[in-house]
Specification:
This protein is an alpha+beta fold and 235 residues long. It has eight helices and four strands. The two termini are 15 Å apart. Helix 2 runs antiparallel to helix 3 and helix 6 packs antiparallel against helix 7. It has two domains: 124 residues, Roll (Diaminopimelate Epimerase, Chain A, domain 1), CATH 3.10.310.50; 81 residues. Keywords: Membrane, Transmembrane, Transmembrane helix. This is TPM domain-containing protein. It comes from Gilliamella intestini.
Length: 235
C-alpha cells in the first residue's frame, strides 16, 4: 500500500535505493504494481528513455497491463508487459516501424501526455517570457509576439520529440503551434503593461491511465538514476 506517497514518488525512491540498472548506463526499468491501491508505474532509467519513451510506457500500461488486471489476470498482464519491454529494448528499430505503421492518436491525447504537455508549456512560457523581455526591452509589442512564437516552437518541438512521427500529424502540430502562439501572446500582453495586449487563460489536463501496481522490477545494482521517465496508471 502506498500510504502517503504517490506511485511516482514510491517508484522513484525504490529505483534509487535499489540502484536499478548498470552503473554508468542507468539502463534499468522498474515495473511497480500496488495491488491494494490499483496503481502501477513503469519507471525508466536515463539510459533507456530514448527507447522506452513516456508514450511507449503509457501504451504498454493501457494495452498490456490494464486489460488483464481488470480481469484479475495479473501474471498474464505482467508477462505481456515484460515481453513488449524486452522486444523494444532488444530491437530499438521497432520504434521506427511502429511510427511507419501509424501513430495511435488516442495515445497523443491521453491524459498522461496532456498533463505532461501542459506543465511543460507553462514552464516554457515563463522562460520564453523572460527571454523576450531581455531581447526586446524597448519594444513591448515585440515582447508579446516573440514570447508567443518562442513558446509555440518550444511546445511543438517537445511534442514532436516525444511523438517522433511528423508527416501524418503535420496539421495537428500546426494547430497546437497556433493555439500556443495565440495563448502565449495574449498572456504575455496581459503581463506587459502598455503593450496593448489582453489576457487569456490556458487550461491543462491532469493525468491518469488504467493500470495496476505491485512491486516488480529489474535490478542491476549500480544504476539508479531516473529523470522521471515512464508512465503511471490505474485499473
Amino acid at each position: 500500500k502506498l500510504d502517503n506517497e504517490t506511485v511516482e514518488q514510491y517508484a522513484d525512491r525504490v529505483f534509487i535505493q535499489w540502484k536499478i540498472g548498470r552503473k554508468g548506463q542507468d539502463n534499468g526499468i522498474l515495473l511497480l504494481i500496488v495491488k491494494d491501491d490499483k496503481r502501477m508505474r513503469i519507471e525508466v532509467g536515463y539510459g533507456l528513455e530514448g527507447t522506452i519513451t513516456d508514450l511507449v510506457a503509457s501504451k504498454i500500461i493501457r494495452e498490456q497491463l490494464a486489460p488483464q488486471f481488470r480481469q484479475n489476470n495479473y501474471y498474464q498482464g505482467i508477462d505481456n508487459a515484460l515481453s513488449v519491454l524486452k522486444q523494444k529494448i532488444d530491437n530499438p528499430a521497432l520504434k521506427c516501424e511502429d511510427n511507419e505503421q501509424g501513430l495511435n492518436l488516442n495515445l497523443l491525447f491521453s491524459e498522461d501526455f496532456t498533463s505532461m504537455l501542459s506543465k511543460y508549456a507553462l514552464v516554457s512560457f515563463l522562460i520564453c517570457f523572460v527571454l523576450a523581455k531581455l531581447l526586446y526591452r524597448k519594444d513591448k509589442s515585440k515582447q508579446c509576439l516573440r514570447t508567443g512564437l518562442f513558446n509555440a516552437l518550444s511546445v511543438t518541438g517537445f511534442t514532436l520529440w516525444h511523438v517522433q512521427y511528423i508527416l501524418e500529424i503535420a496539421f495537428l502540430m500546426f494547430v497546437i503551434m497556433f493555439v500556443v502562439f495565440c495563448l502565449s501572446t495574449m498572456v504575455s500582453g496581459f503581463l506587459t503593461p502598455g503593450a496593448g495586449g489582453r489576457g487569456g487563460n490556458s487550461r491543462g489536463g491532469s493525468g491518469g491511465f488504467g493500470g495496476s501496481s505491485g512491486g516488480g522490477g529489474f535490478s542491476g545494482g549500480g544504476g539508479g538514476r531516473s529523470g522521471g521517465g515512464g508512465a503511471s496508471g490505474s485499473w
